[in-house]
């Protein structure tokens, strides 16, 4: 063999090695850009803001709205979030959203990088509003702003609203323990998130959380009755208010270490025994996983909370013999009810949090003959995240603005109608119908919004008419903030 042949062979060998390295690197690279997804997931909240927008507002097609909220009862209720694609401020899901944003920061804030500042801004937007809503404790707590029937009868931008902005409130004679407790949980959790950053603000939040819990516990009753048809059927409390009372007490104990709160949780453990329910209406699995952190290493205290948390794990994993959810052929978790993506994000969040607690305690879970280690729970959560971001049969991202293919015609008023920048004249109640019916994509991209998601056969109708699939909500995104922060730091 000549010198030239030898040189060619060496080059070929080197090229082969290089190709192998590139192939291995490609295989090891994460499928998705979790950093980008996290930034967009948080940015979504700027599109849901109500009130006077700050100079730092990044989603610039949104402008000031609902600047007279609360004036009907002579209170300043300007601010807060619109819950979904409408212009009502439903406080029950808004409070849960705030709790989950706080929990995301508590667990994963150190993994968020520069996005932690935006997460805290999103959190404070909710906290500042609830401090206003609870200003009258114990005599009056605002429970909702906006008449849903008037609102849902129009398709108009929040900036143009001329629908009824009725303020609904709770009192000692018209209580709402589930709503008051969820606000207590939100403020207590937020006090932890802000403790090392804004100590005075944290202290203020915690004091208000204590007042709210006392109000919720002393004057027991459901907001279903007190607010009535303004809350139902939109956000009825279907499973009673005791799970919220336990949830509020658990967060207050975590924030204060005051024994009375922990005693309340233990005395009412039977109200949070259901394994696989967690969301704005049900706090069962959330309570059990939250308190398991300080119980795992103490078997005498573990029951029933740690066994309940273990049952949650066994209820959601696909290969568990006691699984009680279903999965599409593409691998997405499904649970009964509208807006399925809320279950996907909430269950993924709990799975990662519990995996971290298990790892710290060197614990495994046994689901029949299936042994569950922390890595298995992380793998499950990652499968859900990757499906949401585009690893699915349609190769579609269900986060607006993320990836090459995402929902274009979401059920959302502000996104559907032209911005007042481009159309400064008011668009009346029915003036927006032409935009709702248009076959064209929404003119304003609600970046980061997670929609309700596909059907159980992995199909998706990108249509404003199919509300359960195309409408985003604040409480879908909130747990996903923590989930994406984790995978930003641990992409593979």
Provide a quick synopsis of the model.
The protein has 492 residues and is mainly α. It has helices at 3-28, 34-47, 91-108, 115-133, 148-152, 177-194, 199-218, 223-226, 242-256, 259-267, 284-292, 299-302, 305-316, 341-361, 374-389, 413-416, 433-437, 467-470, 474-489; strands spanning 89-90, 141-145, 167-170, 326-327, 333-334, 365-367, 370-372.
Describe this structure in words.
This protein has 492 residues and is mostly helical. It has a single domain (31-489), classed as Alpha/alpha barrel (Glycosyltransferase). The chain contains 19 helices and seven strands. The chain has helices at residues 3-28, 34-47, 91-108, 115-133, 148-152, 177-194, 199-218, 223-226, 242-256, 259-267, 284-292, 299-302, 305-316, 341-361, 374-389, 413-416, 433-437, 467-470, 474-489; strands at 89-90, 141-145, 167-170, 326-327, 333-334, 365-367, 370-372. A three-stranded antiparallel β-sheet has the order 1-2-3. Strands 4-5 form a two-stranded antiparallel ribbon. It has a two-stranded antiparallel sheet with strand order 6-7. The protein is globular, with a radius of gyration of 24 Å. Residues 17-28 have low confidence and may be disordered.
């Amino acid at each position: 063999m000549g010198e030239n042949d030898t040189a060619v062979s060496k080059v070929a060998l080197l090229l082969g090695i290089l190709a192998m390295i590139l192939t291995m690197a490609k295989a090891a690279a994460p499928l998705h850009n979790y950093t980008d997804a996290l930034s967009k997931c948080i940015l979504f909240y700027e599109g849901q803001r109500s009130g006077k927008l700050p100079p730092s507002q990044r989603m610039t097609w949104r402008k000031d709205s609902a600047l007279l909220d609360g004036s009907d009862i002579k209170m300043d209720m300007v601010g807060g979030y619109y819950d979904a694609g409408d212009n009502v401020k439903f406080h029950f899901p808004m409070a849960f959203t705030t709790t989950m944003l706080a929990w995301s920061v508590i667990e994963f804030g150190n993994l968020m990088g520069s996005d932690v500042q935006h997460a805290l801004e999103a959190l404070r937007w909710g906290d500042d509003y609830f401090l206003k809503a609870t200003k009258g404790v114990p005599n009056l707590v605002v429970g909702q702003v906006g008449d849903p029937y008037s609102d849902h009868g129009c398709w108009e931008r929040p900036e143009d609203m001329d629908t009824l902005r009725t303020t609904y409130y709770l009192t000692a004679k018209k209580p709402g323990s589930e709503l008051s407790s969820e606000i207590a949980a939100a403020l207590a959790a937020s006090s932890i998130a802000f403790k090392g950053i804004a100590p005075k603000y944290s202290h203020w939040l915690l004091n208000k959380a204590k007042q709210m819990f006392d109000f919720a516990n002393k004057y027991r009753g459901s907001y279903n009755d007190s607010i009535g048809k303004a809350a139902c059927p939109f956000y009825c409390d279907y499973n009673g208010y005791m799970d919220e009372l336990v949830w509020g007490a658990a967060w207050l104990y975590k924030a204060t270490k005051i024994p009375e709160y922990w005693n309340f949780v233990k005395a009412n453990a039977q109200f949070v025994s259901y394994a696989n329910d967690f969301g704005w209406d049900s706090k069962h699995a959330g309570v059990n996983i939250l308190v398991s952190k300080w119980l795992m290493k103490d078997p005498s205290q573990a029951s029933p909370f740690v066994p309940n948390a273990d049952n949650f794990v066994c209820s959601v994993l696909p290969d568990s013999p006691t699984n009680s959810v279903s999965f599409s052929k593409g691998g997405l978790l499904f649970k009964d009810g509208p807006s399925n993506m809320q279950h996907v994000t909430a269950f993924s969040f709990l799975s990662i949090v519990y995996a971290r607690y298990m790892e710290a305690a060197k614990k495994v879970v046994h689901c029949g003959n299936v042994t569950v280690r922390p890595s298995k729970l992380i793998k499950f959560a990652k499968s859900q995240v990757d499906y949401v971001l585009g690893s699915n049969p349609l190769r579609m991202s269900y986060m607006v603005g993320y990836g090459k293919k995402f929902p274009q015609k979401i059920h959302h008023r502000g996104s559907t109608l032209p911005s007042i920048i481009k159309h400064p004249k008011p668009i009346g109640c029915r003036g927006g119908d032409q935009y709702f019916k248009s076959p064209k994509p929404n003119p304003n991209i609600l970046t980061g919004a997670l929609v309700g998601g596909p059907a159980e056969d992995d199909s998706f109708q990108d249509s404003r008419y199919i509300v359960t699939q195309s409408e985003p909500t604040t409480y879908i995104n909130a747990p996903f903030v923590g989930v994406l922060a984790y995978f930003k730091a641990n992409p593979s």
